[in-house]
Amino acid sequence: MTVTVILGTQWGDEGKGKIVDYYAKNADYVVRFQGGSNAGHTIKVGEEVYKLHITPSGVIQGKTGIIGNGVVVDLEILLKEIEMLKKRGKEPKLLI
Known about the structure:
single chain; alpha/beta; Adenylosuccinate Synthetase, Chain A, domain 1; three-stranded parallel beta sheet; two-stranded antiparallel ribbon; 2 helices; 5 strands; 29% strand
């Protein structure tokens, strides 16, 4: 089993979300291990733009997203993200 780890070194705004999205196509799981809703990931797939704060971006590609115990979950934001994804034809697979 191969594991790919993407870590930031500048405390945000490094473009990690785009890198995670790139590598997610070859992954089974995409894990978010820390942070909160203050972080944001903007992912563009074709002409579609997705803005996520809690949900691991790999769910856009149908991967299982894992929200780890180091993530500060704002339940209201998480539920809004899930609802937005479902409205856009994505059925996010999430483990918390």
